[in-house]
Structure formats: structure tokens, C-alpha cells
Automatic annotation (TrEMBL):
<dbReference type="GO" id="GO:0005737">
    <property type="term" value="C:cytoplasm"/>
</dbReference>
<comment type="function">
    <text>Single strand-specific metallo-endoribonuclease involved in late-stage 70S ribosome quality control and in maturation of the 3' terminus of the 16S rRNA.</text>
</comment>
<comment type="similarity">
    <text>Belongs to the endoribonuclease YbeY family.</text>
</comment>
<protein>
    <recommendedName>
        <fullName>Endoribonuclease YbeY</fullName>
        <ecNumber>3.1.-.-</ecNumber>
    </recommendedName>
</protein>
<keyword id="KW-0690">Ribosome biogenesis</keyword>
<dbReference type="InterPro" id="IPR020549">
    <property type="entry name" value="YbeY_CS"/>
</dbReference>
<dbReference type="Pfam" id="PF02130">
    <property type="entry name" value="YbeY"/>
</dbReference>
<keyword id="KW-0963">Cytoplasm</keyword>
<feature type="binding site">
    <location>
        <position position="119"/>
    </location>
    <ligand>
        <name>Zn(2+)</name>
    </ligand>
</feature>
<keyword id="KW-0378">Hydrolase</keyword>
<dbReference type="InterPro" id="IPR023091">
    <property type="entry name" value="MetalPrtase_cat_dom_sf_prd"/>
</dbReference>
<keyword id="KW-0540">Nuclease</keyword>
<keyword id="KW-0255">Endonuclease</keyword>
<keyword id="KW-0479">Metal-binding</keyword>
<dbReference type="InterPro" id="IPR002036">
    <property type="entry name" value="YbeY"/>
</dbReference>
<feature type="binding site">
    <location>
        <position position="109"/>
    </location>
    <ligand>
        <name>Zn(2+)</name>
    </ligand>
</feature>
<dbReference type="GO" id="GO:0004222">
    <property type="term" value="F:metalloendopeptidase activity"/>
</dbReference>
Length: 143
């Protein structure tokens, strides 16, 4: 079983270039000095993600991503990342960028959370965006 898996919940969604995306995520984790153990991405709808956002984060809003860090050993990456495909599509349209680029940004955003990056303040959000851009630029495949 691959260390990175992709699933769908309540929607039908097929990620393009799965093998290349997996390698890109692994390379990101390694470059940051961590060891990948197990990472699951779940593509879902707003309706699926909203109750999770309410229950676990006490936010009553739609969100594009929720990341759960299940690591028990420092330096090991174990987590579950839920991504609303609806939010990704809407954000791509809002920012006038290709949907795949926005999806990859959100995918790497979740991994960066597991690597210790946060986006709760202006300063940490700026650093997170810089890291997203850095790793998006390191993709070796067409979006």
C-alpha cells in the first residue's frame, strides 16, 4: 500500500497524475526534514466537510481543506487531509487560475500543516504562502 493514498467521499473525483503528485508530496516532506509514514487525502463536497469544520474547528463556514495530524513520533508524518473539491473549483474561478493549480496548492498546503507551518496570523500565513509557491514551482509535471 502506498504511503500516500487518495480517496473520494460522497463525490466522484479522479486526481490526475497520481504517481507524480505522490512523488512531489514525498519530495516536499523529505526536503523539510521529515519522514513520510502514512498520508491520506480525501476529496469530498462542501456538505461532507462542513460538519467536520463545525465539530473539530468550531467554524460554521465552508472550507477548502481540513488537516488532521495523527503523528505520534516527532519527525514522522501521519495524517488525514480532507479537501472540498467544490471550494477548490470556486477558488480557482475566483482567482482566475487553473483548477489543477489551485488543487495542488491546497494539497501541498495540507502537507505543510503537517510539517509545522500554520496560517493563523498575517506573518505565518505569508510564510505558508511562500512555502506553497516554492513547492508549486518544484513540480516536475504539467498541472
Amino acid at each position: 500500500m502506498p504511503a500516500i493514498q487518495f480517496f473520494e467521499e460522497d463525490i466522484s473525483y479522479k486526481l490526475k497524475n497520481k504517481t507524480l503528485v505522490r512523488q512531489w508530496i514525498k519530495d516536499t516532506i523529505t526536503a523539510e526534514g521529515f519522514k513520510l509514514k502514512e498520508l491520506t487525502y480525501v476529496f469530498c463536497s462542501d456538505a461532507y466537510l462542513l460538519p467536520m469544520n463545525q465539530q473539530y474547528l468550531d467554524h460554521d463556514t465552508y472550507t477548502d481543506i481540513i488537516t488532521f495530524d495523527n503523528s505520534e513520533i516527532e519527525g514522522d508524518i501521519v495524517g488525514d487531509i480532507f479537501i472540498s473539491v467544490e471550494r477548490v473549483r470556486e477558488n480557482a474561478a475566483k482567482f482566475n487560475i487553473p483548477e489543477t493549480d489551485e488543487l495542488h496548492r491546497v494539497i501541498i498546503h495540507g502537507a505543510l500543516h503537517l510539517l509545522g507551518y500554520t496560517d493563523k496570523s498575517v506573518v505565518t500565513k505569508k510564510k505558508m504562502t511562500q512555502k506553497e509557491d516554492e513547492y508549486l514551482n518544484k513540480r516536475t509535471f504539467n498541472s
